[in-house]
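Two quick folds needed for the group meeting slides. Do the first one here.
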Amino acid sequence: MGETYLKALGLHADWGATAEALQHAKQMAVDPPDPYSHISVYNDPSGACVGLIDTRDGFSTETFTVHGAGGHTVEAWQVMPGTAEINLLDDDGELITRFLAFVDDPHMYPWYPLKAVAGLARYSDYQLGAIAVDVNVYDSVEAWKAEQEPLNDAGMRIGPTFIASPWLFALYAGDATAEEASPVSMFKAVVKHVNVVTNRLTGVQWYRALADCGFECALALPMDTTPAPRVGSVVDGKAFLTGTTGFWGSAVQ
C-alpha cells in the first residue's frame, strides 16, 4: 500500500499501525455467503471505509473506499473479491465508461473468471470515489492547461476531467491476470467542493472533496497536499477508484 494512499484517508502511513488500530475499532460484518469466510468494514464518520475480506479458499485482502458521491447507475461484477469492473450508465442505460474499482461490499456482486462473465449486478444511487495515490494539484484549469503538452503531432489533448483504467485494458488484452489487476487509474478532475475532515480512528485530518472526473466522485487527498485543493482546482495523476452500493449505510458526518 502506498503511503500517500493511506494518508489520503487519514489513516496511518504505516499499514501495520492502521491494522493494529482497526483491531480495537467497532466494525460491521455480515454472515458471509459462499465463497467468503469473512466480510467486515470499518466505516469512519469522515467518509473513509476500510474493508476486510477472506474467502474459504484462503484468499485475503483489504479494500479502501471513500463514501459520499451517490446517484450513479452502474452494472458491475468482480474480477477478484474487493475489485470490481464498474460499468457506469447514463439516464438511458447507455454505457458512459468502465473501470476497475475497490468495493467494500463484495457480497453484492458476482465474481467471475474473465471468460465466463454472465449476469451483472445493477444498482442505482451508487457511490463512486477516488483516493489519491500520486497526484499534482493546480490552482485552476488555466494553470493546469499551461503545463499540458499535446499527445501527438496533431495537437490532441486530454481535458481536465478524465479517467482511464490501464489494468482493465491489460486484463482484457491478456497482459495481466485477475490477481494482478489493480484499480489504480489515470485521473484528472476539477474540484467542485472541499472540506477538511478528521478520521476518528487515527485523529488524522484529510481533504474530502467532491470532484468532476467525467462523473462526480468523492475524492480523498492527504492533508499535506500542496497547493491545498480548493473549488476550481485540478487534480491530475494516479488515483484508486472506489465504489459502494451503500450496503453498510452512511457514517458520513
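Then this one, please, same format:
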Amino acid sequence: MRIPLRTLSLVMVAAFVLLPPAAAATPESETLSRTINRELRAGGPWFTAGERALVERKCGYAPGQWDGFEVNISNNVLTCTNGRRVDDPEIRAMLRTAGPRISARVREVMARPAVSAAIHLVARNAAARAMRRIGARHAD
C-alpha cells in the first residue's frame, strides 16, 4: 500500500505534526488542527460501508463500532485499536482501492481556502516569533 500509506501519513502530518513542538500549543496551531480535522471529516468516513465492514470483521469490532477514520496502517499491515494486526489479501486489496480516493480527498481539503488561511496564519505567526527571538539575541 504505497500510495495510501503516504496519504494517511499526510493526513497525520497535516492534522497533528504539521507544526514543530514549540508551536503546537499556540492558538493558531490549535485552530489549524481543528480546521483540518473538520474539513477532512466533512466528507464522511475515509472508507465505504463495505470497507468499514471488512475492517470491523478483520479487527473483531462490533458492526458500526469503527468510525471509518481512526486507522493505523504501516507496510500494508492494519493495526486495530485492540492490538490485532491484519495483513491479508482482502485488506491489501481494500487499501489499494481506498488509497486513491483518500489521496484525492486529502489534496482537495488541503487546498481549501479555510485550510490555506489557517496554514498561512500559523506560518506568519511562527515567522514573527522567530524574528523576535533573533532580534532579542542580537539586542544583547
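Slide caption for protein two: Residues 43 and 105 are 8 Å apart (CA to CA).
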